[in-house]
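Example S7 (structure tokens).
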């Protein structure tokens, strides 16, 4: 085996692909959310063994999976943002290889909605 081929097999591109973050889409900017709403999101992520720094948060009123392609997400949680491809809320959907859950905005989540969201999140994350 030549030195060049040994190096080529040692440094494969797959080794350097950084896994995409979970993408959270909010309908209002982060600054517009109250401390209580931020705490709800933090606790939700903690239950999934994630933290705020481990996810990417963007603000959009609506979206499609194609709109998000530059961000290359594998999992999307939309809170208040409208998923144009489907009107189903609190269901784990897979569109073009991307897992998506659309739900109401954090400030509109009551206990029943939180329970339905948790059921969908457990499916998405395999818990």
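Recovered sequence:
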């Amino acid at each position: 085996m030549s030195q060049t081929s040994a190096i080529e097999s040692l440094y494969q591109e797959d080794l350097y692909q950084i896994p995409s973050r979970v993408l959270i889409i909010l309908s209002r900017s982060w600054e517009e959310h109250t401390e209580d709403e931020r705490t709800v999101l933090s606790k939700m992520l903690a239950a999934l063994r994630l933290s705020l720094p481990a996810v990417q948060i963007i603000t959009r009123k609506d979206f499609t999976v194609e709109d998000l392609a530059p961000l290359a997400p594998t999992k999307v949680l939309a809170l208040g943002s409208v998923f144009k491809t489907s009107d189903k809320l609190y269901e784990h959907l897979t569109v073009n290889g991307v897992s998506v859950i659309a739900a109401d905005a954090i400030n509109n989540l009551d206990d029943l909605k939180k329970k339905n969201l948790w059921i969908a999140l457990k499916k998405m994350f395999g818990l």
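Notes on this example. The helical segments are 3-10, 35-47, 111-125.
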